[in-house]
């Protein structure tokens, strides 16, 4: 699993949401680095981390993050996760493998109708982004373009740096 590490102090692990990379945390990294060692990961299949073999599930992704924590001597680390990353850090907390845990808008706690809506809307979004690949640099170069493409997945898509959005949409 690819990780970006910076800062000093007690470590904190940042787990991004679906389709995001460690860079999605860019807007808050300077403030965190002033007080903590920040370890921000790319989940399997996104950014610099190769996909998992076999079925991808919350359990498999959690196993992957948990293995990363163990392998890097971060047992008991404080965790912050966003969206699907929030769901992953909650699962790690349930397993007893963390310090303080913060889940920002954790995904996956919806009923059948909500799950169907998410599935359909994400599939449509993925098809759209694949078709837009040739013109993505121009679209994400504009705050309105970032907002149009990411409003489903980000609270403030216009504030995300252009390169972060471009890389996430290409991964």
Outline of this structure?
By secondary structure, the chain is α/β, with parallel strands linked by helices. The protein contains seven helices and five strands.
Give an account of the 3D structure.
- It is a single chain.
- The protein is built from 7 helices and 5 strands.
- It has helices at 29-33, 58-71, 84-94, 112-131, 136-140, 143-150, 162-170, and strands at 3-7, 11-15, 37-41, 78-82, 101-104.
- It is globular.
- It starts with a strand and ends with a helix.
- The model has no long low-confidence stretch (mean pLDDT 88).
Question: Topology of this structure?
Answer:
Elements: E1 3-7, E2 11-15, H1 29-33, E3 37-41, H2 58-71, E4 78-82, H3 84-94, E5 101-104, H4 112-131, H5 136-140, H6 143-150, H7 162-170
Parallel strand pairs: 2-3, 2-4, 4-5
Antiparallel strand pairs: 1-3
How many E-type strands? 5
SS summary, helix count: 7
Strand order of the largest sheet: 1-3-2-4-5
Binned strand content: 5-15%
| Broad structural category | alpha/beta
- Main beta sheet: strand number and arrangement? 5 strands, mixed
> What is the mean predicted local confidence, pLDDT?
88
Q: Measure the end-to-end span.
A: 15 Å
- Low-pLDDT residue spans: none
Question: Share of helix among residues?
Answer: 40-55%
**Rg measurement, Å:** 16 Å
Order of helices and strands: EEHEHEHEHHHH
Q: Looking at the structure, what is the overall shape?
A: globular
């Amino acid at each position: 699993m690819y990780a970006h590490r910076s800062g000093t102090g007690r470590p904190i692990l940042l787990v991004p949401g679906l389709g995001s990379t460690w860079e999605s945390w860019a807007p808050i990294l300077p403030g965190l680095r002033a007080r903590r060692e920040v370890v921000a990961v790319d989940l399997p299949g996104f950014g610099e981390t190769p996909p998992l073999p076999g079925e991808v599930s919350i359990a498999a992704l959690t196993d992957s993050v948990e293995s990363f924590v163990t392998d890097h001597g971060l047992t008991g680390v404080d965790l912050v996760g966003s969206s699907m990353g929030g769901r992953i850090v909650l699962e790690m907390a349930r397993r007893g493998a963390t310090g303080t845990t913060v889940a920002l808008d954790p995904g996956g706690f919806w009923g059948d109708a909500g799950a169907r809506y998410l599935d359909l809307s994400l599939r449509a979004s993925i098809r759209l982004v694949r078709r837009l690949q040739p013109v993505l640099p121009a679209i994400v170069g504009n705050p309105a373009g970032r907002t149009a493409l990411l409003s489903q997945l980000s609270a403030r898509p216009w504030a995300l740096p252009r390169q972060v959005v471009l890389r996430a949409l290409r991964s």
